[in-house]
Each structure stands twice: as structure tokens, then as C-alpha cells.
């Protein structure tokens, strides 16, 4: 994903890429070669420690495409160093980190954009306009899903880390583990020490349209059930979650719900209102009212300004000192239920939530999962 960041920002005329950073020399060198293909005259400096990037006074902003467990500390330290941040989803590893990120952003008056690129598309903008217009009435139920199973990673293959990889820094604040290739790079996402599986990988992309269009409020409870991963992976293989908000029920499933049109979509959102329904995925939508299904309603005006592009939106916000569309305050509220769903899955029971205090009600065991202690060497903020 870091290579995608580089490609996107290298294409913007008002951006100069001056540094690349990775704890794996192989990744760093191959990315440098790709940058020179994009910009033959590039003299971007190479770093293995992101702190050296933050030390540079000539850098205005950074992008962060590390595994999930590093997102928060890197962003907070960037804010402290006077840098703005374009950060990959999910926002943070846990609830406490999201709270700390928001405090740091406000304290240092920085700009943040979450890497939910689909947010910038016309389809999501139009879905928001249709739902906010009241065309399908008051939305009382939303169903979200993402199909697809994680790979079977098999048994652990413990070995000495390759000399090109700083395995200790890759793990960073997460619990220390012996090196096995399955825990590193792309497949890290199937381990709860670093991420939350397919569910965590895709939540932000499809839940985004729900928080943008109906703004769920006052979460009361969360109840999750699922299956453990195959092999040494411990993130959920499948997970179904029921969230109860004020005047709204929200469901996440690993299979399409039994509603018209869902089966043909690997990911989607289905809004149920008292006047009709709306089904959407990243690039399409279907509105059904009184038994008639259409893709749009001409009588609903366009009320939202369209995005110049997700990355350009961030650059424009950096220049104007305003917050972009997928800003940190919004992203934190949208991401938090994802964390709570995984906590319910891990504990195997329904949990009651206090939205004002952002804590579980009278449940010490569950509240311990809202944040974790970092390894002392990598507790940097």
C-alpha cells in the first residue's frame, strides 16, 4: 500500500517526495527503484527508522502505510513534529490509541486524512445525498458484509529473521514473538497482535458510507460470534456482529444478507428505511421504493461538493489548514465499533457500551481490551 501512496502523490504537481522509509531493505530498495521510474530525477533519501524522517524540518507531511499496530504512534509523533498525516486504515489498533490521536491532532493543530479512498468517489457522495434526502424514509436497519476467507497459513515456520528485516522494530509496540514469515508483511493482518483479519481490513471502507449518511449515535450494545482462523492465525475467519444504536440496528456478516441484490456483491451495505431500501457497494447503488428499483432519483438534488481526489483533498487541506473529508475526528467514531466488535468476539459474549464515557458498562475484563501496554522499548509517545 505504501507503493500506492507513492504513486498517487507522485502524480500530484504540488507534491515532492523527498524521503522513503521501511524496516525491510528489500522493500525500501524496490520502492526507490519504482520512484525513479515515476520521477527519473528523484533524490529521495532512504531511511529504516521513521523517527529520522520526522526529524527533518523540510518535510510538511508524511503518509503511513505500516501494519495497523504502528499507525497511532507514528501519527502522534508526526503531529508532535509538526507534520500532517495521510494514514492508512484502520485509524488505530485499539480504542485508546484513537483517543490519543485525536488529542494530539487538536493539541498540535495538524491535518489528518484516513486512507479510505472510496470515500472520494461520486457513488458514495450520491448515496449520502439520497439517504439524507429522506427518499427511503427513516433508516432503522443497516446490513454490512464482506465475503472471502483468509488463507490457511499452516503451522508456524519459526526461523532467524532475514538480515534485511529489522524484526524487532517491525513488531514495535506489539507483544514480542519469534519470527515466522506468516506473521510479517501482508499476512500480518490475520493475527490479533497486529490487526483483525478480513473484518478489520474492510470495515472502514464499507462502514464509511453508514457513518457518513446516517451518523449512528449512542451505541448501546455489541454482540459478536465467529470462527477462529486456520493454522497459526488467530484473527476471526468469519465474524457476525449485531450493534444496537439509538434508533438503529447495524449488522455485520461474513456472507451476504438475504436481501434482494446482495448475493451478487462481495461487499456491500443495505439500508432499510420505512419508505424503501438502498443497496450499494463501492461503485453502484440500487434504490427500491414501492417495488420499483432504480439507480438514481432525479428529483433529489446534488448537495455535496465532489472530491478533487482523495489525495488532492488531503494536499488542499494541508495548504488551507482545514480538515479533509476523511478527517480524524470522523474516522475515529467510524472506526471505534470495529474495535468493540472484535472485543466481543474475543470474549464470546454480548457487551453493554457507554457512549459518553467510551467504556463498557461494569465490565472490567472488556475494558482491559480498549488499550494495551506497549513493549517498553517501543512506547515512544
UniProtKB/TrEMBL annotation:
Annotated SUPFAM superfamilies: Glyceraldehyde-3-phosphate dehydrogenase-like, C-terminal domain (SSF55347), NAD(P)-binding Rossmann-fold domains (SSF51735)
Residue span, Gfo/Idh/MocA-like oxidoreductase N-terminal domain: 2-115
Domain Gfo/Idh/MocA-like oxidoreductase bacterial type C-terminal: start-end pairs: 158-379
Pfam families: GFO_IDH_MocA, GFO_IDH_MocA_C2
Highest rank taxon of the organism: Bacteria
InterPro entries per the UniProt record, alphabetical: Gfo/Idh/MocA-like_OxRdtase_N, Gfo/Idh/MocA_oxidrdct_glycsds, Gfo/Idh/MocA_OxRdtase_bact_C, NAD(P)-bd_dom_sf
Coiled coil: none
Protein's name in the database: Gfo/Idh/MocA family oxidoreductase
Source organism of this protein record: Nibrella saemangeumensis
Amino acid at each position: 500500500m505504501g507503493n500506492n501512496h507513492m504513486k498517487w502523490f507522485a502524480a500530484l504537481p504540488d507534491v515532492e517526495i523527498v524521503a522513503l522509509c521501511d524496516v525491510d531493505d528489500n522493500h525500501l530498495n524496490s520502492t526507490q527503484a519504482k520512484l525513479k521510474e515515476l520521477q527519473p530525477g528523484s533524490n529521495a533519501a532512504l531511511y529504516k527508522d521513521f523517527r529520522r524522517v520526522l526529524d527533518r524540518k523540510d518535510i510538511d507531511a508524511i503518509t503511513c502505510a505500516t501494519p495497523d499496530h504502528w499507525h497511532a504512534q507514528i501519527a502522534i509523533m508526526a503531529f508532535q513534529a509538526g507534520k500532517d498525516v495521510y494514514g492508512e486504515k484502520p485509524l488505530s489498533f485499539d480504542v485508546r490509541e484513537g483517543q490519543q490521536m485525536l488529542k494530539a491532532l487538536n493539541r498540535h493543530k495538524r491535518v489528518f486524512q484516513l486512507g479510505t479512498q472510496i470515500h472520494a468517489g461520486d457513488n458514495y457522495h450520491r448515496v449520502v445525498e439520497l439517504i439524507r434526502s429522506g427518499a427511503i424514509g427513516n433508516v432503522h436497519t443497516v446490513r454490512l458484509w464482506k465475503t472471502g476467507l483468509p488463507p490457511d497459513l499452516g503451522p508456524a515456520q519459526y526461523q532467524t529473521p532475514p538480515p534485511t528485516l529489522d524484526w524487532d522494530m517491525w513488531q514495535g509496540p506489539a507483544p514480542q514473538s519469534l519470527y515466522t514469515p506468516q506473521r510479517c508483511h501482508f499476512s500480518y493482518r490475520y493475527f490479533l497482535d497486529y490487526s483483525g483479519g478480513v473484518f478489520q481490513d474492510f470495515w472502514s471502507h464499507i462502514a464509511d458510507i453508514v457513518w457518513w449518511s446516517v451518523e449512528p449515535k449512542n451505541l448501546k450494545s455489541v454482540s459478536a460470534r465467529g470462527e477462529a482462523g486456520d493454522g497459526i492465525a488467530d484473527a476471526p475467519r468469519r465474524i457476525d456482529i449485531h450493534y444496537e444504536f439509538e434508533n438503529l440496528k447495524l449488522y455485520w456478516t461474513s456472507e451476504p444478507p438475504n436481501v434482494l441484490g446482495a448475493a451478487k456483491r462481495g461487499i456491500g451495505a443495505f439500508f432499510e428505511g420505512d419508505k424503501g431500501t438502498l443497496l450499494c457497494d463501492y461503485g453502484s447503488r440500487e434504490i427500491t421504493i414501492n417495488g420499483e428499483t432504480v439507480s438514481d432519483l432525479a428529483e433529489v438534488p446534488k448537495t455535496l461538493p465532489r472530491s478533487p481526489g482523495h489525495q488532492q483533498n488531503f494536499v488542499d487541506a494541508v495548504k488551507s489548514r482545514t480538515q479533509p473529508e476523511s478527517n480524524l475526528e470522523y474516522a475515529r467514531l467510524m472506526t471505534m465499533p470495529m474495535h468493540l466488535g472484535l472485543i466481543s468476539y474475543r470474549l464470546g459474549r454480548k457487551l453493554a457500551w457507554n457512549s459518553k464515557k467510551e467504556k463498557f458498562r461494569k465490565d472490567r475484563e472488556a475494558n482491559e481490551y480498549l488499550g494495551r501496554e506497549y513493549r517498553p522499548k517501543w512506547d515512544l509517545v
